[in-house]
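Entry 14. Structure prediction run on the chain below.
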Amino acid sequence: MHKIISTITLILVITLSGFTKKPDNVKFFQNNMSFGYIDKGDSIEFRFGEQKTIKVGIMEFDLDKRRNEIKQVNLAGDFNGWSPNNAQFIMKKKDDKLYTLVLSKKSIGKKEEIRKFKFVLNNVYWIEPPKEAMNKITGSDRNTNLYVKL
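Output returned:
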């Protein structure tokens, strides 16, 4: 009887403490409220254009009404010196709404590092993270950025 209680206690401790194996397709820092990327295992697919509104500074815009003004979307972050016009980080237009860029995790940092980023439209307009994004962080400089954990 003591052995059964010990086994049940051990199972409860393991289950409640989170030591159970998570499915491979579930990433710790990515959930359905993460914004701007999809973790593809060895790479990150950065994504812009799925949101309904965008915010530039304090101004908010209906993205569908302004899509025709977007000539280019760049990815800027702490992994490229926050360069808004680096040709290596120009996103590809996938369809009428979505821009993507796939980068290997090794090219932007080390495993378990947190990398900050923003999207930049037409090399000028820095897009603020949406208020519902769970993967945003505000630094001591008071700038709010999106982040991804590698």
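Residues 2-31 have pLDDT under 50 and may be disordered.
Filed with the rest of this week's runs.
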